[in-house]
Specification:
191 residues, mainly alpha, rod-shaped
Length: 191
């Protein structure tokens, strides 16, 4: 019975790149389309071929889901607001003369590497072409963003407790970004 095998192969190609819940929805639609063609009088093989042809190339479907994924949207939003928040932190750190703080060089280097990693994850999620890696990168970047914002805010509040207006703005923006990142985390994971 080649008709259902054609559909099984098609769904297997989708399953390799998309989560099971999405493939199940696509399978339902594909089955309905196949049954509609059967109702029009097509043979089982022809109905399966017509249904698969209507759905299109599996890679095109995967690309569409990737482009529409929550992970990609979240990464793009975080990349969009990142420079503004970063500028506020730069003003705060320069104003507070952070280079004179008693923070070990290793901690500064680790923070810098973590920041570069998070930006790389966001870029990978924003521009990625494969669904699962996009979602994983976005989720990891959401966690990383929240951690970096928390570390920076806590460090500034502990070392320079006299809040100046740039620090107040930077902390508020970081808190908002952290809230967004953590609220977006479940959606980024599921796509």
């Amino acid at each position: 019975m080649p008709g259902p095998r054609l559909i099984d192969d098609y769904l297997a190609a989708l399953s390799a790149a998309l989560p099971p819940r999405i493939v199940e929805e696509l399978a339902d639609g594909l089955d309905e389309t196949r049954r509609w063609h059967l109702g029009r009088g097509l043979a089982p093989d022809a109905a399966a071929q017509a249904a698969v042809a209507e759905f299109g190339d599996p890679q095109v479907i995967v690309t569409s889901f990737t482009q529409a994924s929550s992970g990609r949207r979240t990464a793009r939003r975080l990349l969009l607001i990142g420079p503004g928040v970063g500028l506020c932190w730069a003003i705060t750190l320069i104003t507070a003369r952070a280079w004179q703080w008693p923070v070990p060089v290793a901690a500064r280097v680790l923070f810098g590497l973590a920041l570069i990693t998070v930006i790389g994850l966001l870029a990978a999620a924003a521009a990625g072409r494969r669904y699962r890696p996009v979602c994983r990168a976005a989720a990891a970047a959401c966690v990383g963003t929240a951690i970096l914002d928390a570390v920076l805010a806590c460090t500034v509040l502990v070392i320079a407790p006299t809040l100046m207006w740039p620090a107040a703005v930077a902390v508020a923006l970081s808190a908002g970004r952290t809230g967004f990142a953590l609220r977006s985390l479940p959606h980024a994971l599921t796509g």
